[in-house]
Amino acid sequence: MKAKSIFLGVAAICGATFEMDACTGISLTAKDGSFIMARTIEWAKTRMNNKMVIIPIGKEFTSYTPTGVNGVTYSAKYGVVGLCVENPHFIAEGLNTAGLSCGLFFFPKYGSYLPYDPRHNKKTLADLQANEWILTQFANVEEVKRGIKDIRITAVEEGVALHWRIADSSGKQIVMEIIDGEVKFYDNPVGVLTNAPGFEWHLSNLSNYVNLFPGTAPSWNIGEYKVEPIGSSSGMLGLPGDATPVSRFIRAAFFKATAPVLDTAEETVMQSFHLLNSFDIPLAIEHNKGAKLPYMPSATQWTSSIDLTHLKVYYHTAYNINIRCIDLKSIDFNKVQYQEHPLDKENRQPVEMIVIK
Questions:
Q1: What is the pLDDT of residues 186-198, one digit of tens each?
Q2: For residue 126, which of 259, 1, 291, 266 has the smallest C-alpha distance?
Q3: What is residue 159's predicted lDDT score, i.e. its pLDDT?
Q4: What are the residues whose beta carbons fall under 8 Å from the beta carbon of 278, sequence distance 6 or more?
C-alpha cells in the first residue's frame, strides 16, 4: 500500500502550504475550576471529510508508516471521542474518558522528526495518528511524557510536520514539538497555540506587544493640541489583525488574558466559541488574486471546545454554526462499537423562522 494513497489529503490539517497554516487554540478556566480547551481548524482548498470517531475500550490499532500499515500496535485503554479530518485515524482534536485532551497543529519548516527507518517499525507512529495513540493510552500529561520516549514519530509525507498541545483535567497543559528528531516539552503558561515558529519563539515575541492593555488609552497633549482616542478599546491599538500564525498567537493571548472568568463550564465553553469566532478566516484571503475559489463558506472548517472536567466535546462547523455536544459520560465505552460519523449530516445552515402574529 503506497503512502500517497494512504494519506490522501495528509497535509489538510491546518493547511497544505505555508500560506494556509491557520489553526488557533486557546484554553479557559471557569470559576468553578472547570477546564476548557478550544480551537479552530482551517483548510482553504476543499471541503475536508470532517468526521467524529467513537473509540471503545479494547479497540486494537496498528499505525501507518511510509510503507504501509505496519507500525506500532496498541489497544485502547480508554474510551475516546475524536474530531477527525480525511481519515478516522487522523484525530485533530479529542478527549478520552480519563479527561486527557490532545490536539495537533501544523508546524511547517520548524518541526523535523527522526528519519524513517523500517527496522524500527514496531515502535514507529505516524504523526497524524499520534493523537489516537495518546488518547487511547494515557490518563494525564505526565504519562504522555514518559510514554513517548519509547516511540518514533514519523511523517508519511515529506515536508509535513506537526506539533501538539496536550492537557489533562487537572489544568496541566504542555506543548510537544519534535525538532531534529528530539522530542521537546514546554509548559504552556499563556494557554495559547498556533503554528510556526516554535512555541518558545512565540512566548518571546509577546514582549513586542508589552504596550497593549485593555480599555481606553488616556488622552495627552502635543503642544497645545489634545490627542484623544477615536473610539473604545484604544488600549489595544496595534494588536495585529492578520491571519499569520504569529499575529494569531498574539491576538489569542491577549483575548484570552483579558476575557472575564465566568462561573460555570457551559458559560466558559460558550465564551470560547465567541472568542474563536474572531479567528474565522475568510476564504478569499487564503488564495492568491485571481485564483479559483472552492465553494465553501469559510477557510475555518470547524471549531471545537472541550470540557475536560465534565467530559464533553462541543463543536460547530462552517456549514452549521449551531453548537453540538457529545457527552462522554453518556457512552458505555465497554460496549459501544467503534464508529465514525460526519460532523455535518448535511452541508446546510439550519435557520429558525420567527413567526410574527
A1: 999 999 999 999 9
A2: 1
A3: 78
A4: 251, 255
